[in-house]
Amino acid sequence: MRLKSWKELETGVVILEPGNSVLYRTGTWRTFRPIIDMEKCTHCMFCWLYCPDGSILVKDSKVIGIDYEHCKGCGICARECPKKAVTMVEEVKARMEEAK
Question: What is the pLDDT of residue 19?
Answer without folding.
Answer: 73
